[in-house]
Amino acid sequence: MSARKLVMIVYRLLQLTFFGLVIADVSLDLGHPWWWNFLPIVLSYVILVVAHRWGGAPDSPRVAREPLEVDPPVTGRWSALNSPADRTPSHGTHAYGQTYAIDVVAEPEPGARPGFRPLWPLARRNGDFPAFGAPLLAVADATVVRVVGDQRDHLSRTSLPALLYLMTVEASVRDLAGVKRIVGNHVVLDLGDGTFALYAHLQRGSLTVREGGRVTAGQQLARCGNSGNSTEPHLHFQLMDGADPDTARGVPFTWRGIGVPGNGEIFEVPAPATPSQPT
């Protein structure tokens, strides 16, 4: 186990200890000063700061790298959100190797994707979004090194109350539960030369590959879903320098024939003439 992975485990255990102490103190009246309950959470952040100073920023890339050119992971008409073309880290954090990550949503035609609503409806079914169930393709010839596909696809979080719930409650709980609950159903491909591709928020039951298997560029891996820490059906795609998002650092990418679409930019990818089949 790497030192960075150990730091993350200890961090989460201390966070859970904090919540446990608060609940126990309220329920059992442990009798110690109230501030005692906050010692684990303070210690957890001290550990992160020490790890940062000792080993460099724990999640940011160590050295600048040229973007790796790979094929697009989708076909059809899509638009980009949280793009590294606009800022890095694209999602506001280097954590989980997502410095250069991008989110894409299907836009088969203008207005086909339901937009954000302040109050109503609170949530929408996944079938209302054209991205749900869209095929996701291997961006290069690769080896499958991680497959998780048993998490449910939840309703959308595209109203203000639902988004506040996601940001203040659900995201925190998922972070404590570990990276699996953040990225949801996912596939990690080993592209070679120390580079790995992560496909996150996949549809439950749609994965067509197994760990250890080989895939070819353009081969279908799974379908787009809404599992994990997700507001609506979409693909979260990123390159990283390790197979474990908990300890990996981001790697920049560019999609062949497209580049890196900016936030709100529409891009189209023609379907392959002869789609590859799983092996």
Polypeptide structure, described:
This protein is 24% helix and 21% strand. The chain contains 4 helices and 13 strands. Strands 2, 3, 5, 6, 7, 8, 10, 11 and 13 form a 9-stranded antiparallel sheet that branches. Strands 1-12 form a two-stranded parallel sheet. Strands 4-9 form a two-stranded antiparallel ribbon. The longest helix is centred in the N-terminal third of the chain and has 26 residues, at 3-28. This is M23 family metallopeptidase. The chain crosses the membrane at residues 34-55. Keywords: Membrane, Transmembrane, Transmembrane helix.
Keywords:
13 strands, alpha+beta, about 280 residues, two-stranded parallel ribbon, Glucose Permease (Domain IIA), 2 domains
What are the SSEs and their pairings?
Blueprint (H helix, E strand, L loop, with lengths): L2 H26 L10 H17 L12 E3 L5 E6 L20 E5 L28 E3 L4 E7 L11 H18 L1 H5 L2 E7 L2 E6 L13 E2 L4 E4 L11 E6 L9 E2 L1 E3 L10 E4 L10
Parallel strand pairs: 1-12
Antiparallel strand pairs: 2-3, 2-13, 3-10, 4-9, 5-6, 5-8, 6-7, 7-10, 10-11
Helix pairs in contact: 1-2
